[in-house]
Amino acid sequence: MTIDLVELVLTWIVGGLLAVSATLTLIRITIGPSVLDRVVATDVLVSIVICALGAYAALSDAWTTLPLLISLSLVGFLGSVAVARFVARDRDTPAPEPVPDRLEVGERDAGPQAPAGGRRTPEGEGSV
Amino acid sequence: MTVVDVLDVLGLVCLLLGALLCLAAAIGLLRFPDLLTRMHAGTKPQVLGVLLVILGVGLRSRSGLDIGMLVLIGLFQLLTIPAGSHMVGRAGFRTGQIAPAHIHLGQRDGEVDDRPEG
Amino acid sequence: MTGADRQRGRRGVRRLLPPVSPWGLLWLTVVWVLLWGSLNVLNLLGGLLVALLVLVLFPLPRVDLHLRVRPLGLLVLLGRFLVDLVRASVEVAWLSVRPGPVATGVVMDLQLATDDPLLQTLTAEMVSLVPGSVVVELDPGSRVLTLHALNVRTRHQAEQVRHKVRAQEARVLRALHPDPASVLDPRRHRNGSRGAGPETTTTQEAP
Fold it and tell me: N or C: which end of chain A has fewer CB within 10 A?
C-alpha cells in the first residue's frame, strides 16, 4: 500500500522532471545560436527521450519499449556526426570579425594548439 | 517489505537520479556561455543518466534477457557517444565557436609561459 | 590420394572459405539473440546465419592487436571509470545549477605516452565520456590530445586536468598494454612531454 503510494509520487516526479528538462532543451534548440548548439541540444533531447522511455518501461511494466531504446542508443549519434561533418563552414551566426586564418579540415600547419579558426581577440593574438 | 519491494524502490531511485541529471543538463545547456561548455552539460545525461535509467529498468525488470538487452543499450551508448561528441567538438573548435577570448593561463597568473616557441 | 594431396586439398578448401573469426561470429550471434529478446533454436540459427552473412559480406581489415589483457588492471580501469563518471557528473551538474557566475573552460593540449592508436583511442573515449572534459582533437602521429576542460581558471588547475588524463591513460595501459612499464617510464615520459611537442593552454572567458 505505502509502496504503491511512493511509486505513484515518484512516477509523477520523474515524469515532471523529464518534461521540464525536455522543455528547457527545446528552448536551447530554438534559440541556437549555431547549428552545433542545436545539435548538442538535440543529442541531449535524445537522451531525455531514452530516459523517458526507460522510465515508462520500468513504471508501467511495458518491456516492449526496450527494442526502441536499443535503436535510439545505436543511431542517436549519427545525426550529430552528419551535421558536424558538414558544418565546418558554419555561417549560422555572422562572425563579429573576419577570420583570416581559418584552418582547413585536415590541415594542421599552425601547430597542434592554434585555436584553429577561432575568433581571436587582440590579447589572444599576442599570446598565441 | 520484501526483497522485491526493495529492488523496485531502488529502481525508482535510479530513475529519479537519472531524471535529475537530465534536468541539470538542460539547465546547463541554457546557462553555459558557449558551445564547448554546453557540451560538458550534455555529456552527463547521455552517459550517467542513461546508465542510471537502464539500471533502474533492470532492477525492476529482473528477467535475464531483458537485462542482456539493457547491457547492450548501455554498451551502444558508451561506444557511440564519444564519436558524436568528438565530431561536434572538433567542428565547433575549428569554426571558432568557443567563447571569444583566448588567453594563456600563464599570463593571467603572472607566471612565465614555459612552452617552447613554435 | 597421398597425405600431401589431402593436405593441399584441405588448404585449398580453407583458402576458398572466407576468413571468419569465431569470436566475431559468437559476438554477433549473442547480439542477435539479445535483440530478439528470447533464446530458442530458431533465434540461435538465424543469428548464426546473419552473423556469417555479415562477416562474409562485410569483411573487416585485419588488425594486429598487441594487447595483453590483465584482469586486475581491467577491473581497476572500469571501477575507477565508474567512480570518476559519478563524481564528475555530480560536479558538472552542480556547476550548471549553482547560483552565481557560470563556469567557463579552457582548451589545452597534452602529450600521450603510447603510440598504439587503439590505446590512444580508448583513452580519448574514456576521457570524453567523463563529463568535464571533451576531446577536441587527437593526432595519433604526434600523440597530441587536445581537449576542452570545464571550470579551469589557473595554470595549476590545468596541470591537474593533465595529470588526471595521464592517470587515465596509465590505467588503460596497465589493463591492456603488453609492457606498460616501458611506456610509463618517468624519464621517457618527461622527455616526451617536453621535447616532442608544445603543450599549451588557452583559456576562454565569457563575453
Answer: N
